[in-house]
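Exam revision sheet. Question 4 asks you to relate a sequence to its structure. Input first:
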Amino acid sequence: RNADFRNVFSKTLFRIGDEAVRELIRNGALKQWTDGSSSIGIQDHDMSFWMGDLNYRVDESISTDDVLMMSKGNNLDVLRENDQLNAERMAGRAFHGFKEGKLNFKPTYKYQPGTDVYDERPDKKIRAPAWCDRVLWRSQVPSHVQQATYCRSELNVSDHKPVMSTFVITVKDVIESEREKVHHASYKILDQFDNKHLPMVGLDKISLDFGDIHYGQRITLPIKITNTGKVVAQFRFIPKLDESKLCQSWMKVSPSFGMLIPGEKEVTINFTITVDNEMANALNTGREVLEDIIILRLENGRDYYITVNGNYARSCFGMAVDELVMYSDPIRDVPLDPIKRVEKYGNNQTAQFCIPKELFRLVDAMNQKGLNTAHLFSIAGHANEMDVIRECLDTGDVFDPNCSIHSYADVLISFLGNLSHTIVPPKLFTTLEIDEQNLQFYTRKFLDELPPIHYNVFVYITSFFRECLIRQKEHNLLPAKLARICCNCLVEGASRLNDDSSKSVQRRRGMEDIMMHFLETNSI
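Answer key, structure tokens:
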């Protein structure tokens, strides 16, 4: 659902034409002046309203029966606190900058069509009530949008109750005569400076060395730019020849444009590098290196070339299990450069292990910590501890005995979910409905078609999860929860199939049924 939002928000464009863009620039829209675009996105509008069935639910930590009871009784405080959309907005993972009124009405889904009662029919799959239907807004000037009402309708033609909201908005209007007066006044101020001189700026550095950068790390280095001339200096970063982006995908530059008045305080430009899963895979395979040249252009002046480089501290995260089993050395000691790798290990490398040693170390550490620990796979690990565990996996160092089992569990799920190739290849995704008659056939076919190393990992991790279920009986760890975890990290991986089409939902249910079978059967 978060991915759906990001996809719509980033890719929705309105092509308004060059003339309209010029008018926007005259009204102060520097973004269009910077990138030369003849389109505007959602974020460029004065105000945006986002409404529909967003399909966010109440967190699964609350049982379906409890959600039903609280919904019927109009006890909404706990449900609001555990609403997924509220949680994702607060964490900044979706709908950043959007606002929503307080949810003072009962969850709008799932009702028995034609009635005003939640659907609890025994012949149907019972779903926990949720606020799937929402109305949010975003405004460049927050005071320009005031929500008057936010409620739901009691129509009963669907399994959803529609929501509705009324707003009082202030619409900005441009008085052209006044705008021209401001322009003329601005030109007079600028004309006071000596226009015979070219703009000049000073940079405190023209190269940035980020040093060692680790997986999942986000590092920012600044460059200070000062107007050293006698006239206004307008600057912006521009793409290199035959390229469309200002910099490589692993880097962000902010701000990407600006204006400096003579004598004004310097401006700090931040360069941020992030190594995510996709980038780690590209670095591990030699398709990318952490090197780039950024061009800073002064309007009516010269260009400045800023070099950026860093060294990727190689990690087992973002790699393939087929490659990880090739090395007995810690992965940090395996050269990224293919030539150096051949020099160290030769051309005829063979697998050193049946499963990645990193996977074995994580499972072994969890066994030593005790699989009967309460709330295993339910409590989040500590971020600092997870960083330490990841670093030990990559360097071969001994684990810190103070790290909690919950941190190991989160690292395990992250490791499996962020492999460059999922343990279960996409070609094995079942496209047919799984039932008791064909389940045995599909599970056997599933195992037979797994690649050898993937088969080893699947058997190993499934056996481990079965042991967890035995040790966690008193703590109510359910096979269904572990089946979902298996589906998330072994089947979908970092791609996270967010397609809500009926075929995709059926395919996911089928894979969860297969995972459930392996978790509950006595042997594989």
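Marking note for examiners. The longest strand covers residues 218-227.
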